[in-house]
Design brief:
- This protein is mainly beta.
- The protein folds into two domains: about 60 residues; about 45 residues, no CATH class.
- Helix content is about 5%, strand content about 45%.
- β3 and β4 form a beta hairpin.
- It starts with 8 loop residues before the first strand and ends in a 6-residue tail after the last strand.
- The model has no long low-confidence stretch (mean pLDDT about 90).
């Protein structure tokens, strides 16, 4: 996914971050200045870090301090169907409860939702 500095950000290792500016003039090419929650023992303290437009601290190597967009939460509804002839379950996915209701069809045995998730969740 593409990094967007206009949306909420955090570090890859999950620390809160906030972008101060995206137009820093510096010979290294690091145009983004951000305040990042310190990993030290002082809760709430922030450290200033510089980043490339990609959100990385270094061009060549990704690292745990790189910036990513905070994953957005999505919501879906699932219609569950049972195919008696083949003894299998089938699922249809919908973004709204009303759409799941409209597509209920013959053989629907359950409607599950809302199911909330963030992109990338559970892939580890």
């Amino acid at each position: 996914m593409t990094f967007d500095p206009t949306k909420p950000v955090q570090t890859i290792d999950g620390r809160k971050a906030r972008i101060i500016c995206t137009d820093r003039r510096h010979s290294s090419g690091t145009t983004i200045v951000a305040l990042v929650e310190s990993s030290a023992a002082l809760p709430g303290e922030e450290v200033m870090r510089s980043y490339f437009a990609s959100g990385r601290q270094r061009h060549d190597v990704p690292g745990p301090h790189d910036l990513i967009n905070v994953p957005e939460e999505h919501e879906i509804w699932l219609n569950v169907f049972h195919d008696d002839a083949r003894e299998i379950y089938k699922v249809s996915v919908h973004q709204e409860h009303d759409a799941a209701y409209v597509c209920r069809g013959v053989g629907r045995i359950a409607c599950l939702g809302p199911i909330k998730f963030k992109v990338g969740e559970g892939l580890e």
